[in-house]
Amino acid sequence: MRVAEATDWIQPRWNQRPRVGVILGTGLGRFADEIEEPRSFAYDDIPHFPRSTAIGHKGQLTFGTVCGVPVVTMEGRFHIYEGYTPSQITLPVRVMHRLGIDLLVVSNASGGINPRLAVGDIVVIDDHINLMFANPLIGPDDNALGPRFPDLRRVYDAGLIEQVLAVARRENFPAHRGTYVAVTGPNYETRAEYRFFRQIGGDVIGMSTVPEAIVAAQLGLKVLALSTVTNVCNPDALLETDGASVAAAAASAEWKLRTILLSLLRDRSNPRASNPPAPD
């Protein structure tokens, strides 16, 4: 009901069908400047949408085209640490799916727990570990929302991961694939916790993304998740971390994420250009 009411409010105000949904995390807000003929709606105006209170998040849904592709972008996301339930956090993903998207791109800022990572590196998420101890699929079974037990073996699209790594090589900036550990926050972690997260296979850690990815998988959407390393979490030489420094580090690497997204959208607009026919 909430998904339908939010969708019904939006559709008369922007009657195109978006193909790609983008969740703009910390540091990627300038991507919205690439949108042609944008039309924005404040979350406060959309039925059932929560309010975004995170640092640097505008709190609006913006529609338009990028590289000829109709898109919808969330300029600001929601988090469990803001007091929202997982189902509230993921409501916009269900709305974007109902509006017509088939690809969800999620960005975030993260702490690097793999010692090979440096501030400003891009990590293409190829798996996750959910330590939020919450799941957006908990609740009454509703077939209209998707399968009760979605298969999460391949949440993040392998083909898109390879595309991103190829773009990074071509543009000559570091990009890695890795596992994202999701926690609730809103505190930064202890030295012992960083050691634990690394021991269980984590490469980066953050406080978002996984609820949205789980719902997207249930809905059958392709998912691409891009993480900017904003601080290095070395438990033996741990430096002080705060929200302002994280936002500044994410902003300094924003051009890399924007380069990736624009390249992917150009490919979707003209797939033959990125996949030329084989010679006879």
What does this structure look like?
This protein has about 280 residues and is an alpha/beta fold. The chain has a single domain (about 1-270), classed as Rossmann fold (3-Layer(aba) Sandwich). It is about 30% helix and about 25% strand. It has eight helices and nine strands. Strands 5-8-7-6-9 form a five-stranded mixed β-barrel, surrounded by four helices. Helix 4 links the parallel strand 7 and strand 8. Helix 1 packs across helix 2 (about 85-100) and helix 2 (about 85-100) packs across helix 5. The longest helix is centred in the last third of the chain and has 16 residues, at about 255-270. It is globular and about 55 Å long. Residues about 275-280 have low confidence and may be disordered.
Uncertain segments are 273-280
As for the number of domains, it is: 1
In total, the number of strands is 9
The CATH architecture comes to: 3-Layer(aba) Sandwich
CATH class: Alpha Beta
- Mind describing the biggest β-sheet? 5 strands, mixed, barrel
* Fold-level CATH name: Rossmann fold
> What is the rounded distance between the termini?
54 Å
Q: How much is the radius of gyration in Å? A: 18 Å
Number of helices: 8
Q: How large a portion of the residues is in β-strands, by DSSP E?
A: 15-25%
List keywords for this structure.
alpha/beta, 280 residues, disordered C terminus, Rossmann fold
SSE diagram, text form:
Blueprint: H1 2-10, E1 20-24, E2 36-42, E3 60-66, E4 69-75, H2 86-99, E5 103-112, E6 122-130, H3 158-171, E7 175-182, H4 191-199, E8 204-206, H5 210-219, E9 222-232, H6 243-252, H7 254-269, H8 271-274
Parallel strand pairs: 1-4, 1-5, 5-9, 6-7, 7-8
Antiparallel strand pairs: 2-3, 3-4, 5-8, 6-9
Helix pairs in contact: 1-2, 2-5, 3-7
